[in-house]
Known about the structure:
Blueprint: H1 12-38, H2 43-53, H3 63-70, H4 74-86, E1 90-94, E2 102-106, H5 108-145
Antiparallel strand pairs: 1-2
Amino acid sequence: MGIHRRPVTVSDADYRRLAELRYQIRRFLHFSEHAARAAGLEPKQHQLLLAIRGMPQRVPASVGGLAERLQLAHHSAVELVDRLEQGGLVMRRRSERDRRRVLVVLTPRGVAVLRELSRDHLAELRVRGPELLSALHAVLARRLANGAEGPPPGGTAAA
């Protein structure tokens, strides 16, 4: 199933740690979904706005790049952009470097909606974040105690 090296055994405590981590992640996601809907958006729409604003520096938000960031099929990202464009939250524009490339940018309304949602999310993380970090730390501490070397799967080593 997984391609990453697994611990030799999975203890009852490991199951509890993983379940707690999943619970804490789900609590935050539940909050996020509720906040998005309260702002008149579907959760994926909020995620797309955040992905646009949060793209790495000097990486423009193309539909393909946004699809990758959200782990969506390209056509699903196109549909999401279409809906947000119809709602006046984003707009498409041609890249100045490569006129064949279409980029997605936030409109002033999109910026305002995302700002409010992000403020709410940061406030929630200030309250619930320590529990999430504690659960993640418990899982990672077990992994490190098992002699795992290098960064966690999908992560990068700190410089």
